[in-house]
Design a protein that fits this description.
By secondary structure, the protein is of the alpha/beta class. It has three domains: 4-126, no CATH class; 143-281, Glutathione S-transferase Yfyf (Class Pi), Chain A, domain 2 (Up-down Bundle); 288-402, Rossmann fold. 43% of the residues lie in helices and 7% in strands. It has 18 helices and nine strands. A four-stranded parallel sheet has the order 7-6-8-9, sandwiched between helices. A three-stranded parallel sheet has the order 3-4-5. It has a two-stranded antiparallel sheet with strand order 1-2.
Length: 403
């Protein structure tokens, strides 16, 4: 008999209704290998954990059904497993490649694994089992200083180049995020210099820009995430934003994909990625790429936030291919089949050893094709891959490092 008290706590999962029954337990999300589409295994976490069912998608979906039907209860033990998922979305991509309309339940094509995992995490938070201890520390600071790095909010623009004065209002706004201002200031500094050199003068809405809320969303702190999102939407709207340029892949996904859901209607501004802008400026002859990569072999790592979650693959590649005298070479796992760097979903902060093990596999992918540079557009990916790649003598570059 169903435990009605426990079911009543599952407010986030229950909102997803029939989607929770879209999995037919075929098991492709465990070991799918499809050479024709460049897929070599699916779940990066499964490869570095005991490998039991709860560590990959099919098991998680069975757990969700058990919770909804009252056969299982939320617990700390469950939380410890669910929070080891990077929410990379590779199970989602594999599941949808497996669709055969002649044999599969039609609801399967609407199945969104990551949305379900994030709802489960939100219910674990409601029940007091989540997020992980390190996540709690980070998010408490996010409430206090609007960033997850335990830095003062007033220092969000301390990276600003000397002598540069940007407006706080305007139709073109650059959304800074948290990781670059506080942990990779050289990247945001270089990005702004490129835009200024090309004749663009974006606004920064500091001190009104808060954390985008991605960390809160991914770890189940949905109420905090919605509070941050609505604040930023209002701040951008009030600043007169028509186009919001984002560099960080996590921020881009959050603004582009999550904000409309939270806002409940179309955003009052357009969200664009920095590589779209840089590509346009290259075509217009307003920017030039570096020429000191000659004879280099560059590969591109697709961030999960940008690739699988937003179907955004080509603009970064188009920039790399414009470099003269270099060879661009794809890793065997790329685009929808790209291997996760290991840092997402709160894994880097709560399970750093697991994150590094996954990163090591991705660096091996780059070594396998003979790449001597890894290029990406996500500060989380850069930091995690760099912790392994630099020991192998392979520099990890941000896309703006090519200019």
């Amino acid at each position: 008999m169903a435990n009605t008290q426990e079911i009543g706590k599952l407010r986030n999962l229950k909102k997803l209704g029939d989607l929770l029954y879209g999995c037919i337990a075929c098991g492709d999300c465990r070991t799918a290998v499809r050479y024709t589409v460049g897929r070599y295994k699916v779940c990066p976490v499964l490869e570095h954990t005991p490998g039991f069912e709860p560590f990959f998608a099919r098991g998680k979906m069975q757990i969700v059904r058990g919770l909804i039907e009252g056969r299982l209860k939320l617990s700390q033990e469950l939380a410890n497993v669910i929070y080891q998922c990077t929410t990379c979305g590779d199970c989602h991509a594999t599941c949808h490649q497996s669709m055969d309309p002649n044999i599969n339940l039609s609801i399967g094509k609407y199945l969104d694994h990551t949305k379900i995992y994030e709802a489960l995490r939100a219910d674990l938070v409601d029940a007091g089992y989540g997020p992980m201890t390190r996540h709690r520390e980070i998010l408490e600071w996010c409430k206090k200083e609007h960033n997850p790095y335990m830095e003062l909010h007033q220092n969000r623009i301390s990276w600003m180049p000397e002598g540069v004065d940007l407006p706080s209002r305007g139709e073109l706004v650059f959304f800074m995020g948290c990781t670059e201002p506080y942990r990779q200031p050289e990247i945001i500094r270089k990005t702004i210099k490129l835009l200024l050199f090309a004749g663009m003068r974006p606004a920064l809405i500091h001190p009104e820009e808060y954390c985008c809320g991605s960390v809160a969303l991914r770890t189940g702190m949905r109420d905090l995430a919605e509070e941050l999102a609505l604040h930023n939407i209002r701040a951008l709207r009030d600043a007169g934003a028509k186009e919001v340029v984002v560099h960080c892949a996590g921020c881009y996904r959050t603004l582009k994909k999550d904000y409309p859901d939270i806002y409940g209607k179309e955003l009052p501004f357009k969200v664009v990625h920095i590589t779209e802008i840089l590509n346009r400026l290259l075509v217009e002859g307003k920017l030039m790429l570096r020429e000191d990569f000659k004879n280099g072999r560059l590969t591109y790592h697709d961030p999960c936030h940008l690739g699988r979650h937003c179907d955004f693959y080509e603009p970064p590649r188009e920039i790399i291919k414009k470099l003269s005298g270099v060879e661009f070479i794809e890793m065997k796992r790329n685009r929808t089949a790209a291997w996760c760097c290991g840092a997402g979903g709160g894994v880097k902060s709560a399970f750093p050893n697991l994150a590094e093990k996954i990163a090591r596999v991705r660096v091996e992918d780059a070594k396998e094709v003979g790449a001597n540079y890894i290029v990406t557009v996500c500060p989380f990916c850069e930091n995690n891959l760099r912790s392994v790649a630099e020991k192998e003598g392979i520099p990890v570059l941000d896309i703006v490092d090519l200019f």
